[in-house]
Design a protein that fits this description.
The structure holds 2 protein chains of 2 kinds.
Chain A lengths: L3 E7 L2 E10 L4 H12 L5 E12 L1 H14 L4 E5 L3 H10 L6 E3 L5
Parallel strand pairs in A: 2-3, 3-4, 4-5
Antiparallel strand pairs in A: 1-2
Helix pairs in contact in A: 1-2
Chain B lengths: L15 E3 L2 E5 L6 E5 L2 E7 L5 E8 L7 E4 L5 E2 L2 E7 L6 E8 L2 E2 L4 E2 L13 E3 L17 E3 L22 E4 L1 H5 L12 H6 L1 H7 L3 E4 L3 E3 L6 E2 L6 E2 L7 E7 L12 H14 L3 E6 L16 H9 L23 H17 L4 E4 L18 H8 L7 E4 L19 E4 L1 H11 L6 H8 L14 E4 L8 H4 L35 H20 L3 E5 L28 H4 L1 H16 L22 E4 L14 E6 L4 H4 L5 E7 L5 E4 L9 E6 L15 E2 L5 E4 L3 E7 L1
Parallel strand pairs in B: 14-15, 14-25, 15-20, 20-21, 21-22, 22-23, 23-24, 24-25
Antiparallel strand pairs in B: 1-2, 2-8, 3-4, 4-8, 5-6, 5-9, 7-8, 9-13, 10-11, 12-13, 16-19, 17-18, 26-27, 27-28, 28-33, 29-32, 30-31, 30-33
Helix pairs in contact in B: 6-7, 8-9, 11-13
Classes of the chains: A alpha/beta, B alpha+beta.
Chain lengths: ~110, ~700
């Protein structure tokens, strides 16, 4: 399934909507979007991922990339991830890098 | 001035093309497949191949999508290297074909029809899930893969805990949590083990030693149990396919190719909780067997380099498994070094235990070396400088080096003599008091110049009886292994306490529990580094099977319900482990001097018997007491309570006269294994004052530990 990402920034909160399958062939698209919003120094990042069906290793790394690009003080929220994504985040430990929430703002 | 970046380097653009795949000359080092800008650098060694072909697959595909021959100008010396561009890192599987002579007498077994796994591959695909039925017609079963090396370790690094302060817990990743009673979400995996970290912390463990986690094939030599029809497999994993790749089947995320992340997350979490991680590594042989075995990697890449061969071109078998890795060949030596550096730096591993390590000290013709270059290199390597290096100091070829393993001031050993002596003493053999005193002191007879921490003390390990079985079986019962009970060790030094196997006899069961507590007590008060076998803290049984290498079932899975069934053992084990952790006087690095060099009025160690200051060293004696003066703790660098340990392995109760403490101190009872639970121990810092400060009765076959404070 193709991957798409769109972004917007409101009140210093960067919101990215991810759809499809995020793997090594699409991770760079996500990375470019992170770099794009990072320029505006957001204080929080919200990832709307309810329609993200799969996240491979390369995709997980983009979360760490975002942390490092934005700074560790910037909190990252994942909104409504699918169970399989949550499992992957848990088993690989990446879940510690994000806040899993049902909606944002909570 | 504009800065140049990678993209502007002229050597990261392709110069060649094959079926639309672009490539160019690569970098010779590092060996293996390395991500570089825009592509992957492949490099491999072979001293005798005529030519080499890189074979590329899409993950899981039956046939390769490309085979690219290395042009002659890409070969430098005996290495072939190439950068291939625009590969999908996550979907790529690769291997090699090597063309060369098939001349076994000369040591060469090239076969270009085989696709060979890269010895430096960082992950292996194809068997992603534990025990998933293999496709036996697969033309390439164990597929080299790429991994991301950019794990976010944050501030983590190897813990560098002084080795004498460790309490090691030997565990099998799958066996640790695969039993349904474990209650974890992902049973039998790295993720499952992570859920049990609080348990280990509570038990007092600060080092976990993982039985082999390098990629291996559980189907190697698999067979059916003729009696039960059950599949018997290579469960323990002492047969390496690849030295750089973690076992995919141990990862809940193996099916997604994320085993590296899952394992690193586990290690990071262990470290966060103060627990070191050691790996049991098997460099003595590989999974390719002898001349009848499969060609998976080394055999087809450079048989003559990687294996010790007889003059006729057959395989030396010092490992007892068919072949012997040629560890002191310079190329193999470098591979071992590269491998351990990789695990130390990329996985933050704290130490390594080398299976059948005596082989690492053999020359290429199999003879023992006086100054083995591999062992010396490992001892002095800058990356491994703070890693623990522990040898299983013997091999299957008869080389036994406990006490004499070439140490270079760095190596420690599994102390097999400790195991045997303590077992024999516990079962009541006579004539062992002299040896017992050596073992309790950290075996100065074996390690006079190397200190106490040269010895890893253990009574049980994966090989042999569990601690419970040591006191429940006189003989091994290995029928379930399908080898007519011919496999496994016959010298177990065990004693069934009066009945072979399970019994309803209350007296026997009480005695067995007491013997387990005696064993744990002796282990935890001995100088040196104690190692506990997974499950011994809860009375785990393998029903008398002392060689469960092939069982993926309850014989090897730890049944967590035993915590309740044998709660007295579990609580006692927890107490005695934490007792050791709380008392530095039990954890010296250097040997005792048998003198009062701190002027406390007591020597650092003194020996006693039923009479204070007068140990009975006679042949028929089965009693010994030691007193460790707290003023000499940690070789005098700190202070502690004084500890008195009295051991009675006589079958009758005996009165022990206790040495007198200074006037302002009293003896307190920490342990009395003769007492029924919960009175067999007292909580640390809540010990009861000993009623009679000058003597106590030791029950038959029991241990008393007193704290003077």
């Amino acid at each position: 399934m193709n991957f798409t990402v769109t972004s917007e920034i409101n009140n210093k909160v960067a919101t990215l909507t991810l759809v499809g399958s995020l793997d090594s062939s699409s991770a760079f698209v996500f990375q470019e979007e992170i770099q794009k919003v990072a320029v505006q120094s957001p204080v929080e990042m919200v990832l709307r991922v309810s329609e993200l069906s799969f996240m491979a290793s390369a995709g997980l790394r983009m979360i760490v990339f975002a942390k490092q690009k934005l700074g560790s003080q910037v909190q990252i929220y994942m909104v409504s991830p699918q169970d399989q994504i949550i499992d992957t985040l848990q088993m690989t430990g990446f879940i510690h890098s994000v806040h899993i929430v049902d909606k944002y703002p909570e | 001035m504009a800065e140049l970046d990678f993209d502007t380097r002229i050597d990261y653009y392709p110069t060649h093309e094959h079926q639309g795949i672009k490539y160019r000359r690569g970098h010779v080092l590092p060996f293996g497949a390395t991500m570089v800008p825009n592509g992957v650098n492949f490099s491999i060694y072979s001293s005798a191949a005529y030519s080499c072909i890189l074979v590329l697959f899409v993950k899981g595909a039956n046939e390769p999508y490309a085979e690219i021959a290395f042009p002659e100008e890409f070969r430098i010396g005996n290495t072939y290297s190439m950068i291939v561009f625009d590969l999908d890192f996550e979907l790529l599987e690769y291997g090699y074909r090597m063309d060369g002579p098939f001349d076994p007498e000369s040591g060469h077994r090239f076969d270009k029809s085989k696709i060979l796994s890269d010895p430096y591959a960082k992950a292996i695909g194809g068997r992603d899930k534990w025990l998933a039925p293999p496709d036996w017609d697969n033309i390439y079963s164990h597929r080299s893969r790429l991994v991301f090396e950019d794990f976010d370790w944050e501030t983590d690094k190897p813990l560098e805990t002084p080795i004498e302060d460790l309490v090691v817990y030997e565990a099998h990743v799958r066996g640790f949590t695969n039993h349904p009673s474990s209650g974890v979400k992902n049973r039998g995996t790295f993720a499952g083990a992570r859920e049990k970290i609080p348990y280990l912390l509570d038990l007092g463990i600060n080092c976990i030693e993982l039985m082999p986690i390098y990629e291996y094939d559980e189907y190697e030599h698999s067979k059916t149990n003729p009696e039960t029809g059950e599949l018997l497999v290579n469960y323990w994993g002492y047969s390496t396919l690849n030295f750089f790749a973690p076992k995919s089947g141990y990862a809940a995320t193996g099916k997604y190719g994320m085993q590296v992340d899952e394992l690193k997350t586990l290690i990071k979490e262990f470290h966060k909780n103060g627990i070191e991680v050691m790996l049991d590594v098997v460099f003595n042989h590989t999974a390719e067997g002898d001349h009848r075995g499969p060609t998976i990697s080394f055999k087809g890449i450079d048989n003559n380099t990687y294996y010790m061969l007889t003059p006729e071109g057959y395989y030396f078998n010092f490992s007892g498994t068919g072949n012997t890795l040629n560890c002191n060949h310079p190329v193999v030596r470098n591979m071992v070094l590269d491998c351990l550096r990789y695990w130390a730096s990329e996985y933050h591993i704290d130490g390594f235990r080398f299976d059948l390590a005596a082989i690492l000290g053999r020359a290429q013709d199999g003879s023992p070396l006086n100054n083995p270059p591999l062992l010396e290199s490992l001892a002095h390597d800058p990356v491994l400088a703070k890693c623990k290096l522990i040898a299983e100091a013997w091999d299957a070829g008869g080389l036994y080096q406990v006490g004499s393993f070439p140490a270079y001031g760095r190596w420690a050993e599994w102390n097999g003599k400790y195991r045997d002596a303590i077992r024999r003493f516990l079962k009541g053999e006579e004539g062992l008091i002299g040896e017992l005193s050596q073992r309790l002191q950290g075996s100065p007879d074996l390690y006079s110049t190397r200190g106490t921490s040269a010895g890893i003390n253990f009574i049980t390990c994966h090989d042999g009886f569990t601690l419970y079985d040591l006191f429940a079986y006189n003989e091994k019962h290995n029928e379930a292994n399908g080898e007519n009970n011919n496999d496994g060790n016959n010298d177990n030094f065990s004693w069934n306490c009066g009945c072979e196997g399970e019994t309803e006899d209350e007296g026997i069961n009480i005695l067995r529990h007491r013997q387990i507590k005696n064993a744990l007590s002796i282990l935890m008060v001995s100088q040196g580094v104690p190692m506990v076998l997974m499950g011994d803290e809860m009375g785990r049984t393998k029903y008398g099977n002392n060689n469960t290498y092939c069982h993926d079932n309850g014989l090897n899975w730890m049944n967590w319900d035993l915590i309740d069934k044998n709660s007295d053992i579990y609580y006692f084990a927890k107490h005695i482990i934490n007792f050791r952790r709380n008392h530095p006087v039990l954890r010296n690095r250097d040997h005792f001097r048998n003198s009062d060099y701190k002027n406390t009025g007591y020597p650092d160690i003194s020996f006693h018997g039923v009479h204070a200051w007068n140990a009975d060293w006679s042949k028929s004696s089965r009693v010994l007491a030691i007193m460790l003066d707290g003023g000499h703790a940690k070789n005098g660098y700190t202070t502690d309570d004084t500890i008195y340990v009295a051991i009675n392995m006589h079958w009758e109760a005996l009165p022990f006269e206790i040495p007198q403490l200074p006037e302002n101190k009293n003896w307190h009872v920490s342990v009395n294994t003769d007492m029924p639970p919960p009175h067999d121990f007292h909580q640390i810092n809540k010990e009861a004052v000993l009623e009679n400060q000058s003597s106590c009765i030791l029950g038959p076959r029991s241990v008393v530990i007193l704290v003077g404070k």
